[in-house]
Amino acid sequence: MKLFSIFGDPVSHSRSPLMHNSVFKCLDLNACYTRTHLTEGSQLRDVFFAKALSGANVTVPHKEAAYAQCDEVRGIAKTIQAVNTLVLENGKLIGYNTDAEGFMRAIESFGALRNALILGAGGTARALSIALRQGSITPTILNRSQGRLEYFKNEGIESYIWDNFTPTPYDLIINTTSAGLSDDELPLEKSLLMTLLSQTKGAIDVIYGKETPFLREVKATALPYKDGSDMLLAQGVLANHLFLNGAYPLSVIEPPMKASFSLS
Ligand code: NDP
Description:
CATH class of the largest domain: Alpha Beta
Structural class: alpha/beta
Strand content: 15-25%
Number of helices: 11
CATH superfamily of the largest domain: Leucine Dehydrogenase, chain A, domain 1
Bound molecules: NADPH dihydro-nicotinamide-adenine-dinucleotide phosphate
Number of strands: 12
Strand order of the largest sheet: 2-1-3-5-6-4
Order of helices and strands: EHEHEHEHEEHEHEHEEHEHEHH
Radius of gyration: 18 Å
Helix content: 25-40%
Largest sheet: 6 strands, mixed
Shape: globular
Number of domains: 2
CATH topology of the largest domain: Rossmann fold
């Protein structure tokens, strides 16, 4: 039996086991996907091999640690410097980032976009800004504090903190902050958010499974919007495709994985 797992802290809330096991079951594969609660990111590689895994996903806060422990990193993950998917290939640990492409698939429904404002400057903001730029959509970062802006400055991506930001129109407003995840906070001051929403064509929150204060404000407008479910599904489909060495097309993997969203 091939074994897969998700590493994170916390990890108990993760829907990944349900998503991937639904695909394995549907395709009648001898494979199983579990959760691994990992507090020390530096142990990720050792635990991966000790559990004899064939592949894994990595979530908060270990994506940068996973990047550092791969034998080889492929694709956009090299620029993002964060890995959310690990695949064992000829005894070597290969790292990918499917969050980035998953997000780009999720925003296709918004139509053509010229630019986007990303709220937040963490690992997800990094992945999304690089993916947007590759897709010829100009990203701008807005964060509450300075500390994490260095990466974006080095990448030549415009970045601001609340104090030095002047709102201009953006085609899409993206919330990648964890505001609203386990509290009832908006990701930025309400009047500034309302100004941004009055000038945009759509909004998306990468948080899924709950209505954040950000999404509540967006819903009160007539704007097209999404939560993070489509991104979660798309990154999972892409990761499963890598786990199965490309043996099944995305169009075969997606339906059973999507169906798992209605299971609890
Ligand atoms: P990080 O911890 O790396 O970054 C969090 C960011 O949020 C920081 O910029 C931080 O600002 C900001 N922030 C936190 N609290 C507040 C607040 N109250 N007000 C304003 N800003 C705040 O997190 P990640 O980037 O790894 O993940 C972010 C979110 O994305 C998580 O909720 C995660 O679940 C979700 N996610 C969803 C995915 C999906 O498939 N749908 C995939 C990946 C992630 P500061 O720098 O000032 O601390």
